[in-house]
Amino acid sequence: MYTWSAAQTDQERKANFNIENNIAIQGYDPVAYIKSNKAIEGKKEIVGSYKGINYRFSSKENLELFKLTPSTYEPAYGGWCAYAMGNSGEKVEVDPGTFKVIEGKTYLFYNFYFNNTLKSWNKMEAELKKNADKNWNKIITKK
Questions:
Q1: Secondary structure of 63-132 in HEC code, one letter for each residue
Q2: Distance between CA atoms of residues 63 and 119, nearest Å
Q3: How far is CA 121 from the centre of its chain?
Q4: Could you give the 3-state DSSP secondary structure of residue 1?
Q5: 101: domain range?
Q6: How confident is the model at residue 7 (pLDDT cuts 50, 70, 90)?
Q7: What is the pLDDT of residues 82-139, one digit of tens each?
Q8: What is the pLDDT of residues 11-61, one digit of tens each?
Q9: Is the Cβ–Cβ distance between 45 and 59 less than 8 Å?
């Protein structure tokens, strides 16, 4: 698995994440993926931050769970497509409704124009995950 460099600033970290309008995961609740195995949109009025990244939550309970162990709930690879990260090391947009929880971590996937990369990921998960971890480590440790 990958870890954040202690020397990395919040600003550097934020530059690597898939963020739109200053919100990660297109406003979806990061806790819901793991807690309920569902993609649930967060509410605009329930927002929490972790190391410069803002998230929305569907309930105050989920926000409180996030605050206890935020790194547990952050999506893998900064919220970029896990398949693309494993296949080519590229940061590719995702459909936040297309995800898989693996060992307590949320992996998001591109699913547009008749191309659901989760299906491809499932065929070669072990190899793609190994490659994705390496590729993400290269991205987050660049100086």
A1: HHHHHHCHHHHCCHHHHCEHHHHHHCCCCCCCEEEEEEEECCEEEEECEECCEEHHHHHHHCHHHHHHHH
A2: 31
A3: 15
A4: coil
A5: 10-141
A6: low
A7: 999 999 999 999 999 999 999 999 999 999 999 999 999 999 999 999 999 999 999 9
A8: 888 999 999 999 999 999 999 999 999 999 999 999 999 999 999 999 999
A9: no
User: φ and ψ at 21, to 5 degrees?
Assistant: 55, 40
Residue 24 identity = A
- Can you read off the two tokens belonging to residue 105? 């971590």
pLDDT at 142 exceeding the cut of 50: yes
- Position 63 in a domain: yes
28 DSSP β-pair partners: 41
Phi/psi for 42 (5° steps) reads: -80, 165
Strands 115-116 and 111-112, bridge-based pairing: antiparallel
Q: Give how far Cα 105 sits from Cα of 12, 84, 96, 142, Å.
A: 22, 17, 14, 24
Count up the domains in the chain and report the number.
1
- For 133, the 3-state DSSP assignment is helix
